Amino acid sequence: MRKVMASPLRHRTGVQQSFYVFLFISLACSYNIDLEHPLVFQGPSSSFFGYSVLEHFHDNTRWIIVGAPKANSSYSSSVRSPGAVYKCRVHSNPERRCTEMDLGRGNKPRESCGKTCQGDRDDEWMGVSLARQDRASGKILACAHRWKNVYYDSEHILPHGYCSIIPPTLQGRTIPLIPCYE
Questions:
Q1: pTM for the structure as a whole
Q2: Taking a C-beta distance cutoff of 8 angstroms, is the pair 68, 44 a contact?
Q3: Which of 122, 125, 182 is nearest to 150 (CA)?
Q4: Taking the CB of residue 81, how many other CB atoms lie within 10 A of it?
Q5: Do residues 176 and 160 touch, judged by C-beta distance below 8 A?
Q6: In this predicted structure, what is the pLDDT of residue 80?
Q7: What does the longest C-alpha to C-alpha distance in the chain come to?
Q8: I need a surface site. Which of 32, 114, 148, 175 has the fewest CB within 10 A?
Q9: What is the predicted pLDDT for the residue at 67?
Q10: Cβ atoms within 10 A of the Cβ of 84, count?
Q11: In this structure, how many other beta carbons lie within 10 angstroms of the beta carbon of residue 79?
Q12: What parts of the chain have a pLDDT lower than 70?
């Protein structure tokens, strides 16, 4: 009786293993990366460069927007590790250089952002998340989820998060957005 029961069980296990192998191969083949001609961009060490990546297209130019949430920003040198967002041109960039974007935030570690708001930018992780409007000439949203509001200049710290709305040209004035405060 045991020999009769063991045979269907082995057959079922073999079919199941074959299914898993087929599933693994189909998943591996469906993810297409160009291994022959990769584009490799590098940023500052220990900055988490590449934590978030976004493809952007404007005026017949392709860009890769890269978040580096632990970077020291050259535009905010007095702020401790605020993070940064970089733009990297895809074509006509043989050195594969990326340029830090000026989000217009200035060099102040703390600044007033409303009647009951005193923003703390140290370790805010700018560039931890990136999003883009899904249309031609769409704007980009770069966020720092660890930006804090020191409420009424006391020990009450509210982690609201901060975002910058970047124009499609990747130049000019950005628009601030504090989602949990406004």
A1: 0.75
A2: yes
A3: 122
A4: 19
A5: no
A6: 86
A7: 82
A8: 32
A9: 95
A10: 28
A11: 22
A12: 1-15, 18-34, 108-109, 152-155, 180-182
Chain centroid to Cα 110, Å, comes to 24
Query: Exposure pattern of 113-130 as b/e (b: 16+ CB <10 Å)?
Result: beeebbbbbebbbbbbbb
The alpha carbons of the chain give a radius of gyration, in whole angstroms, of 24
Neighbours of 159 (CB within 10 A): 12
CA distance 47 to 49: 5
Give the type of residue at 169. Answer: T
How many contiguous H segments (helices) and E segments (strands) does the chain have?
1, 12
- Of 31, 174, 166, the closest CA to residue 104 belongs to 174
- The token duo for 50 is 């590449």
| Amino acid identity for residue 90 in this structure | V
Phi and psi torsions of 177, nearest 5°: -145, 120
Q: What tokens were used for 122?
A: 């140290």
